Amino acid sequence: MHLSWNDIAAWDRIRRLQLINSITGYKPANLIGTRSSAGIDNLAIFSSVVHLGSNPALLGMITRPDTVPRHTLSNIRDTGYYTINHVSHDIMREAHWTSADWAADQSEFEVLGIASEELDLFSAPFVRDAPVRMAMSLVEELPIKANGTILLIGKLEFVRFPDAALDADGSLNYEQLQSVAISGLDSYHSATRLSKFPYARTQNWKGLQ
Amino acid sequence: MHLSWNDIAAWDRIRRLQLINSITGYKPANLIGTRSSAGIDNLAIFSSVVHLGSNPALLGMITRPDTVPRHTLSNIRDTGYYTINHVSHDIMREAHWTSADWAADQSEFEVLGIASEELDLFSAPFVRDAPVRMAMSLVEELPIKANGTILLIGKLEFVRFPDAALDADGSLNYEQLQSVAISGLDSYHSATRLSKFPYARTQNWKGLQ
């Protein structure tokens, strides 16, 4: 099937959202935990968390502008802090439901029965049952002129995960973590490792096998 | 395990890269196809493609700066065009090897035996065997001050995928596509759909089940 942008632009809005949100490939499933200046906790699912650099450890995420209320964005702006929590099999249904339009005075933790946790006096809430939990501080907010979205850039302050999930080379073992992947707007996937390849050096290429 | 940034900063560089590159969750696996102004084709694997918006269809990707030669970045700057091609099981080994430091006058298509294809007179090469192939035009280049990386923003010009992969609601069916997910720097995963949830409306929440 060959679709030009003009073809897709003529589709109805929901169908276009479904296609373009599913076009990039598998996406990470993360819950962003924040606390408002009034002390109300918020939790929202994001599939746009992206690695920016390892020293310092910088992660980005894309948010829509605050032309309608965006609790996550306004809480991060107000406090400067947020948490990133992997979604695992066990919590994916409740995680998806954080995308509903809950009111500002409703905590998604409470209304959806997701257990929260405080760690190290950090001023944003963590998801207790998430296999990987990161404390983040806001570093930079980059407006994207082309469509008004925003790249939020944060620095990793600390991270928690099960001891058994740390492989000898420093990477996280996804078979241990039970984290899920998202495709499109609403599909959740488990994954199985097919291969772990060595660092690729031109002199080691042995041809097609 | 609890690791502060200071703990991780004390690790050796490769171990830190492994951890921080694996910390965000599953990532999409895409091959970026470009052509230099001298006519040399280039192909490079990226795990940082991210959805920015659906109307127009804008996708981002993170690239490191050109303090060392970056063929993908310089070709996109020179020509304004690139392709995004999903990595499937069948081509993941060769796809990973595009990360080796091949010379500017070597085409990864040729040296790694990856079949290329021209489509619709588009001026960047596609990966013939990729299940999803997108033609992109550069819209905006956003420098990230915090670490010198760059967010490249592109607009979807057209896309090709197998007819059977388009679900009735407009989303791509990942069980059909056989696209893979990446974790960290070097692990490739197949995935299985666990659930597709309805659009979440507060009045439809039925509680924990």
Number of domains of chain A: 1
Give the helix tally of chain A. 6
CATH topology of chain A: Pnp Oxidase, Chain A
Q: What structural class results from the helix and strand content of chain A?
A: alpha+beta
Shape of chain A: globular
Rg over C-alpha atoms of chain A, rounded to the nearest angstrom:
19 Å
Order of helices and strands of chain A: EHHEEEEEHEHHEEEEHEE
Look at the structure and give the CATH class of chain A: Mainly Beta
CATH superfamily of chain A: Electron Transport, Fmn-binding Protein, Chain A
- Poorly predicted runs of chain A are none
Helicity level of chain A, as a percent range? Answer: 10-25%
Distance between the termini of chain A: 31 Å
Strand content of chain A: 35-45%
Assembly type: homodimer
Lateral strand order in the biggest sheet of chain A? 4-3-7-10-11-6-5
User: How much is the average pLDDT of chain A?
Assistant: 95
- Largest interface: which pair? A-B, 116 and 116 residues
Instruction: Please identify, by name, the CATH architecture of chain A.
Output: Roll
How many DSSP-defined strands of chain A?
Answer: 13
Biggest sheet of chain A, open or closed, and with what strands and sense?
A: 7 strands, antiparallel
Provide an overview of this structure.
- The structure is a homodimer of 209-residue chains.
- With 209 residues, chain A is α+β, with helices and mostly antiparallel strands.
- Chain A has a single domain (25-189), classed as Electron Transport, Fmn-binding Protein, Chain A (Pnp Oxidase, Chain A, Roll).
- The first copy, chain A, has helices at residues 5-9, 13-22, 71-79, 92-97, 108-112, 174-177; strands at 2-4, 27-28, 30-35, 41-46, 50-54, 57-63, 81-86, 116-117, 126-127, 133-143, 150-160, 181-183, 187-196.
- In chain A, the strands form three sheets. A seven-stranded antiparallel β-sheet of chain A has the order 4-3-7-10-11-6-5.
- Chain A starts with a strand and ends in a 13-residue tail after the last strand.
- The model of chain A has no long low-confidence stretch (mean pLDDT 95).
- The interface between A and B is large, with 116 and 116 residues.
- β13 (187-196) of chain A pairs antiparallel with β13 (187-196) of chain B.
